[in-house]
Batch of 4 targets.
Target 1
Amino acid sequence: MYTLKQKNWKISENEITSENLFNKRRDFLKLGAAALVSSSVVAEKLAAVESVKRASLDFKKTLYGKDLELNSFDQASTYNNFYEFSLKKDAPAKLAHTLKPNPWDIEIHGEVQKPMHISLDDIVSSYPLEERIYRFRCVEGWSMVVPWIGVTLAHLIKKAKPTSKAKYVKFTTMLDPEMFPDQKRGLFGNIPYPYVEGLRIDEAMNDLTFMAVGMYGKILPNQNGAPIRLVVPWKYGFKSIKSIVSIELVEKEPLNTWKLINAREYGFYANVNPEVDHPRWSQAKERKLGSFFKNKTMMFNGYEEEVGHMYKNMDLRKYI
Amino acid sequence: MKKIILFLVLLLPLFYLLATVQSANDPIKYIFTCTGLSAIVILMISLAIAPLKKVINLLKYRRMVGLFAFFYAFLHFINFYVLDAELDFAFVIKETLDKPFVYLGMISFVILLFMAITSTKKLFAKFNKYHKAVYLVLILVTIHSSMAQKVLSSLEYAFILSVIVLLGIRVYKKYVMKETSNKI
């Protein structure tokens, strides 16, 4: 009788792990390890795995920051100050799945001739998106370099035609306790909500001032302020307000959240300045994420040439 | 046996720090947080040993627990001097004189250093009355740890509550119980 002799190393087709599954083995191992800790950790890990899938964006590259060494996406998306979720920096990445970034409207109103609502889809599809690599310096003393994708703020504001009374711009984060768990806690919340930030009109119209809808080639992860956030690279990070729903042009300087909380330590301007210390810590140097060594902090975070002229006659020790 | 177990438990924060610091996003800040929290919690444990002696008697090991609190405070200081200040001695002095956040920590560290040095049997007999300064350290480090945050979280409130309890017990024992015994 003829028999087909199988080599003994040969395994049958149905024993072979599909490539898809094989590629997921590390996630699986991580989940297995997490299961040993607790089931809530597993849920968080799953959420983190989910949020990694992000839609791609069409954008053109620019020369902004082309010589800077980028931080990893992992660093930029797991070290977030987003008090609407938690005071802990690693928590927003796990909790931000409650944020629903689509659909999303931004209102541009106040001292403008043409008040308007812009949807996120409008911004993504009808504006030419560009990538800009900026330094990002937190008031706490850490820093990173991030490739943002978006449009200049000037681009958006010009559409609404500001009037001559528009001296400042006031930005407001979404207020929705269903999306942001800490907003449910009322008086016991981490900070007063909604989060408010502001810029002087010349700062707002500066070419560096950017509205980001994405980073690292794709749309913003929720924990980084999806679907749209401000990026003001020469100011401390708290000025770069996340998940914006309102851009209001106003006549008087708006009271920003951190100045409201502690005006002695945080001002309206919050320009990065190595010579003016925070009352509790030095601002002369910074810790770039992922490094055991410190770098010198630069005046206006390295953007003095582009923005220094706006503060020529101001006492930067007084206007913190 | 009890002593070895306690010793190993008190070393756990260090092992945890060593195992996780490589993957920390902001390593210097992470070392500050780990060593600072360890020091403050272990200091509180050392001060909870006397009031709890009827529940579990660890009085014999109180010196060791206290020395561990100093050990983590020492690592905390070394992190400031070596990694944060990059061995710039003038910077350390300037910051210490300049910023309440820093000098509260420094005063506490110096007191803990003094207590560690004078914790041998011989020196303790001579200096133990000054070891009451630990209550000052307890208050200062709680303020220091609160000042390390931009806004207070439940952890800082828990520390403040613990300080009130730890000091309250002592005040109660010293004044209230004494008074009642005087009346009798």
Target 2
Amino acid sequence: MSGKKNKKILLIGGRSKAKSMAVSLLGQGYQVTAINDDYEDCLKLAEIHGLKVVFGNGTKPYILEEAGAEDFDIAIALTSKDADNLVACQLCKKKYSIKKTVSLVGDPNKTEFFYKMGVDSVVCAVSAVTGIIQQQAFIDELTNIIPFGQGLVQIVEVRVPEDSPAAGKKLWELTLPDEGIVGCILRGDTTVIPKGNTRILAGDTLVLITGNGQELNMIHALTGR
Amino acid sequence: MKFFGSNKKDNYTIIIGCGRVGANLANTLSDEGENVLIMDESNESFRRLASNYGGLSVVGDGTAFDQLRDAQIDRATAVIAVTNDDNTNIMVAQIAREMFNVQKVIARLHDPECEIVYRELGIDTICPAVLSAKEIDKFLGVLPVKEALP
């Protein structure tokens, strides 16, 4: 908590997102300020204990100055308009030298563009949600997928079922996508770091590292599903 | 897709936002015989166009990549962002410059304070308030105010 105490986070726009994020961040010991251009939303936000609220348009420099923008460590843009989020982040970055900017983006096609324009971290709610739903819907043997590096790399935990074509085979006998490796085998209480001639057994839990959206191919090759 | 030989440099202007400025400009360019495409979110806005307007009008979102591609932005010699929202204009201009390498990009901004965001990208900007102030100053016969924009 001590390190976080001095970290200041600026939330720009967003209704329920700003509210739940503010509560969560304050709970973790950060100093949080929210800017919102809807007066009713501001009143709601102001009910949160410890949250500083500024009423105004967070894409305007004079409002950001009123909020003391140059003192913040992280700025998070949560408005529903992509253009507003982009300009807010660019202002925070270029004019107020905020080190890390995070932006929500509605249009999945704009994620790359936002990165190109200097936003440090871009979160697309649409693709995140569809991704999660797809994982849940199509891969029942799957325990967990953790995305890394903006989702370019995935760490996947998967169990090998009895009827898997991979069960009983050595690793080198399997045809796996180039963009993936079996990083670790969890077998009962033991952990095996696999080599080419390590045999995969039914009931093993495998930790896979995959890139380039190959996780589904990888899972298919190892579980047959 | 290209209608003309790749060497032939025809002027093709895309205008985003069919308000008073956008429609006026579209009419003028069309009268001068240039290729013009004007895009707006609302079909109603195109009523501002003159009856003899000879360009294209497209209902669409000027910040959507696929719609810009459909409008053949890769062929555009100029993109002009004149919607009623400054941030949208900034984003349109940045998309045209950074994603589609359009040579001439102009954005109309009511509030020039966000300049730092687009200055280094070489986007030209027009600020009505600054222009008005200059004109009024001219009428008053005093020396022009110190320029607020470069």
Target 3
Amino acid sequence: MTIASDDPRVAAAAAPPPAPPPGPPVRRRRRLTRNRWGYAYVAPFFVLFACFSLYPFLYTAWISLHEVRLSDIDGAEFVGLGNYTALLQNEFFWNAARNTLTIGVLSTVPQLAMALGLAHLLNYKLRGRTFYRVAMLMPYATSIAAATLVFAQLFGHDYGLINTLLEAVGFDRVDWESGTWTSQFAISVIVTWRWTGYNALIYLAAMQAIPGDLYEAATLDGASRWQQFLHVTIPALKPTILFTIVVSTIGAVQLFGEPLLFSGNGMTSGGVSNQYQTLGLLMYDQGWTNFHLGQAAATAWAMFLIILVVVGGYALLARRRARAER
Amino acid sequence: MATVTFDSATRMYPKADRPAVDNLDLEIGDGEFLVLVGPSGCGKSTSLRMLAGLEEIDAGSIRIGDRDVSDAPPKDRDIAMVFQNYALYPHMTVEQNMGFALKIAGVAKDEIGRRVAEAAKILDLEDYLLRRPKALSGGQRQRVAMGRAIVRNPQVFLMDEPLSNLDAKLRVQTRTQIAALQRRLAVTTVYVTHDQVEAMTMGDRVAVLRDGVLQQCDTPGALYERPANTFVAGFIGSPAMNVVTGPAVDGGVRLAGAVLPVPREKLARAAAGTGRVTVGFRPESLETAPPGEGVPVVVNVVEQLGSDAFLYATLGADDDGDVLHTADVVVRTEPRTAAAVGETVHLRVREDCLHVFDPVTQLRVD
């Protein structure tokens, strides 16, 4: 083969193409019109989001700055941050915040720990694995009302199965509903029962993405099953664990259905001495029992801010750890 | 340091109709570099994993040194393995990856540090000790995987296609580095590959497997010179040996109307049952003969490699009515005098370069 100078490719390479004329600066407007179909396709979601999420969200903020009665929403009276200062001085608020925290810790920590253990077991090749996986998700598919009613019966004082069993093995009956710790423990059991399988499935999915040869390498390195779990599984699951912690925290702050139905009579006070009144219950109590919408809105915003602070704290912690690891 | 012995070791996967590894008998000497080679699905990786303890042994036994390890858990076998995808722990630094086994074994911290530093120096990884695997290139990851094995100072190294994820150039480089490192450390090594070039260049001895059955285990030179059957003959060497079958006639085998001479005793034994004989000749042991002599072939494709040229040619069917299928033949020639496409070339085999096989058993006839 010869390299001829009249080869069109050589000629083209030799003569550099004329530089493109400097075009007009790309304006935002032009980019908008060029991508109009993209915006059109995402529009339905954002329209719905604006109507049903953003607007109520901002309206709640507006209401929280007013004195509003449920019977007369238009007769709102601007009070500035009055509802918030009242909330901070309200002993019920602090009581509810404390209850929410203890129930949250009592339910989230064992729930996630058990979910991790369950997922680890289900990751082994078991006979009837699919059955167990489906069974795990059953509590999640059960309505809160049905589940809570059953659990309220189980924890009943006189005829409850749990007290019957306690008595059978020689312990005293426990008045689950009226004690502070006992009632909060009982509610945590319901929450844990309902959400453990859901989290276990999320962990299981993440575990199945871990390459098998990592475990083989760890086996050859002499790591026991437990050490493999600590040194291979847990590090690989870190992002997933953070995700489940965030989701569970949000759920815990907003806890409402279980404590409402646990009393058995639909009282929003969370027990006679408010021993298991959560922030969600308090908000409902303020708005729909006492008709102080302004205060209820302030409580809702306080819950939102608590979630923001807590989740923001996790994110900061995770980022600092990730940076330390790099 | 230790020998490794496979004694009729067999692995049968549940629901499989034939064993993945069938009665494997293999003796690996102390400090030897043995390569297991074969096409995919031949059982070479399974054999290695049986030795590692990652696969059960259904029959027979495996010994490391004098100790029967058939039922020993992997950690008690005093072996280290390099995986095909390296299997580095993604959240650990290079240092932690290499020291993990020692940490699990409860070795003192400064001792771990010393041994990791030593291995890192050998493998040129000193600048990367604090990096995580995802911040390393493919070649560096491969070296970390090697380092993880070296640090443990095991009796046996197991390597499962450790070069298959590297690009061609790096593979050739790393190939020689691994071989040199193994000679230097003098640790018994079992190395699995599907690449016969890797097998030939690295191994002290090479074991060729097919369908779970050991075909031949010998030095690279012996495998090339005296393949035990047609499978080994076709598998070892590149391009592959030409293997053709034809009717036995007086003085040789008839191919495309011409007679290729075969030594009398070999011919008699190979053709005893069927009257036919299978012969093999490598592309590099063919030479052109003047017309009238040699076996005629028609050239289809010419591959110019610069140093050599390869002719891909067709051996015509026999015109005597005793028609055999046509066969493809590869010929290595001088690049300057290579024949043109469509030309007919007459070939003969250099003296002592003809391999004779039994057409039924496919075994070598000597």
Target 4
Amino acid sequence: MTTITHHAPDALLAAYAGGSLPKPFALAVAAHISLCLDCRAAYEAHLATGGAVLESTSSEAVSEGLKSNVLDLLDAPVTEKPVYQRSGAFPGPVMEALKGKPPRWKSLGMGVRQSILSDGRDGSVRLLYIPPGRAVPDHSHNGLELTLVLQGSFSDETGRFGVGDLEVADQTLEHTPIADAGAPCICLAATDAPLRFNSFVPRLLQPLFRI
Amino acid sequence: MKQSSPQISDLTAAMIAVRNDRDRDAFALLFDHFAPRLKGFIMRTGTGSGQAEEIVQDVMLTVWRKADQFDPERAQVSAWVYQITRNRQIDVIRKENKPLPEELGEDPSAEPDASQILAVEQEAGQLKGALERLKPDQREMIEKAYLGELTHQEISTQTGLPLGTIKSRIRLGLEKLRHELKELR
Ligand SMILES: [Zn+2]
Ligand SMILES: [Zn+2]
């Protein structure tokens, strides 16, 4: 059992609880909370604050029929959405993004692979597979980047990140995460903008690989 | 039981009755309390009256259907209802499902620890008091954050609210649940 040392900052948990995070970040935070009891407690404290806001909001009278409508529907049959269970290194929310299937890896060269879970206007989120000693291609960030380790570990200029650790990086950080010795490192990486590579060649490859 | 000892609130008792006994009268009490507050809360994000009532209906039905997930040792009813509401609003307005953390696996204990429930309620009450004592502009900022109208950059880490104590209460409830889960395996 590893100990989580890099947590979600409180402002990020508040934004997640309030529901203002774009979906890629919300996925990374939901996955971290699934692995981290400390951040789950902090998240639920923010829900308590949300509850206090709800309690102190001024009321609006509801239509006359609403209550009887709801009471009539209590036993109506419903189709439940499937619940995705944790599978191997992948917590429930990641399995949901994978729709219950194993990741479809695409090679990025040097043994590094990625599987894009979503890529849209609100950002992108992908799984990265990095063999020991290999680096995530050198890149800088347009905005915010959240990286959650799911298997193995990596190290960069700011420290070592093991299973469950969440790295929060922004424009000001130029880093080169390198997978440590041992099991290949698998992580979930969410950004609110496409990553761009610093070196010339990978930049040419960028449209091809959607990095 | 001593007469002077503090009692679990009516709302929490009603929610436990819904969860354990599928008690419809208790559910009606929850509806009367929450439906108008929910409608007011939802309309503050610019949603019209008709759509707000549809969301209120969905939320209240979820309260009934997912009652087994309510754990009074970790959350006050309003916190739990708040979570359901924000998730439903995001589903309806952004037309996407908000990614949610894993559930903890097992149902919360049927016979919850009254002292832990009271402690959670007390902390939540203090939180509400602190919210009401904030300066108007600070309070408005907090309300916006929990209505989903501030980005994470805009939410300052210092909310001015005493989240530390409730966090440790919740943590205690989680530890207990995790301990019980371990014993089950
Ligand atoms: Zn954490
Ligand atoms: Zn990076």
